[in-house]
Amino acid sequence: MSPVLPPRVIAFDGDDTLWHNETLFSMTQERFRAILRSHLSLDLADLDARLLATERKNLAVYGYGIKGFVLSMVETAIEVTDGRTPASDITAILSVGRAMLEHPVELIEGAREVLESLRARDHELWLITKGDLFDQESKIARSGLEPLFDRIEIVSEKDEGTYRRLLDRHGISADEFAMVGNTLRSDVLPVINLGARAFHVPYQITWAHEHVEGDLPDGALVLDALTELPVRLQAMGLSRSVRHDQP
Amino acid sequence: MSPVLPPRVIAFDGDDTLWHNETLFSMTQERFRAILRSHLSLDLADLDARLLATERKNLAVYGYGIKGFVLSMVETAIEVTDGRTPASDITAILSVGRAMLEHPVELIEGAREVLESLRARDHELWLITKGDLFDQESKIARSGLEPLFDRIEIVSEKDEGTYRRLLDRHGISADEFAMVGNTLRSDVLPVINLGARAFHVPYQITWAHEHVEGDLPDGALVLDALTELPVRLQAMGLSRSVRHDQP
Q: In angstroms, rounded to a whole number, what is the distance separating the alpha carbons of residues A72 and A78?
């Protein structure tokens, strides 16, 4: 008869959950097409498919992140032009990559307010983000959200093993924990498999590699927007601060 | 009158302290020269200097690691040839980069035995390594040394702030802590500045960026080889296991 209480620890994904990221990749991919357009017989959908195939092939060696993506763009450019890419195109690709790394971090609407309101209700807040260590640290710093988190974890992959290690390391049980993120594959499914809760906040675009088919599993809730989170958490039971007031 | 005791926590650098790394960069740089040799009027020392300058310029955007190094090689190749690099040379650079990422991890002589002997003496062992998260995790796994460490930290920079955060987070005081590594800049000086101890084990080559001039600071000891570490630690006082036996 244990009542469903809101989870004590709320962990957030970064890219496309707290700040925009996939739009930056899409914008870069547009530029990549524009660079190649003049020497290319391939149509644009085929070019996108070739780039995705190269990225996927390279994931095992490069891991996630912008630098690996730039290397994959260079490789794809050379391949699809049968080696006729001029050096000026390669230079252009390097500079769109650099622009991605230096691009301002644009927060998802309401991200700061949601974090602040959950802190005010005594939730412990974590950030669990995947990708390139240097780039993620830089984005976290530029986001201005760093002081709102009790714990920040940058990991190379977000699978069940990763989440289990993090919970074990910090002595958190699955029923105390909820993850909030935009991808089913990395933020929702592995967390539900551990018996914890997950909030799925879909982003306008999902990277093809992260896309999974199927229904939302039991224990996961879908939100139309991040700003719904505080109300949905409260609806799970008495809010933590109310419980504090009424011992 | 407190006697000098051996530090309880011994932290190791990874690259060029436990496994060879700089030799791999040197080997790759050799290949880079060979790729460019045919279209280059520059002499090789100038080429090395241009590459280093590009790497340094890019550190603030790319951080440390092989992927950033590969991007810097591509950029340098295009620059030093005034844009005349053929795409086949860029492909060759990408493939030497990939070879670096897939290169077997070769341990420094005696690395495993040193770690095992310190564990047997109840030291807590940490690995604190800098660079690309994905590549470092892969190297740690391939090194076979992972099970010997109580704690593994992959960081983007090894400065005083980083070491202070790690010690604070795990409740370790400076006099309980010693760092073992090959670079004065990242492994020795920041640690000594915190009041902890450091063992400098120079490697046969130091990356120019990590090179610092000057004497070894007080509190740092230099070792000719990693294998000297157990004896030097013991010489600091009674070994921990002896202290355990004689309460």
A: 10
Q: What is the pLDDT of residues A7-17, one digit of tens each?
A: 999 999 999 99
Q: What is the pLDDT of residues A75-119, one digit of tens each?
A: 999 999 999 999 999 999 999 999 999 999 999 999 999 999 999
Nearest CA to A200 among A64, A9, A16?
A16
Query: To the nearest whole angstrom, how far is the Cα of B2 from the nearest Cα of chain A?
Result: 34
Q: Mutation test of the interface with chain B: which of A78, A133, A149, choosing the one with the most B Cβ atoms within 10 A?
A: A133
Of B64, B85, B101, the CB nearest to A87: B85
Instruction: List the one residue out of B79, B100, B59 whose CA is nearest residue B208.
Output: B59
How many other CB atoms are found less than 10 A from the CB of residue A26?
A: 12
C-alpha distance from B133 to closest chain A C-alpha (Å):
6
State if pTM tops 0.90.
no
Partner-chain contact A67 B62, CB within 8 Å: yes
Please name the member of B63, B84, B98 whose beta carbon is closest to the beta carbon of A134. Answer: B63
Cα three-residue angle B224-B4-B161, rounded to 5 degrees: 75
DSSP letter assigned to residue A49 = H
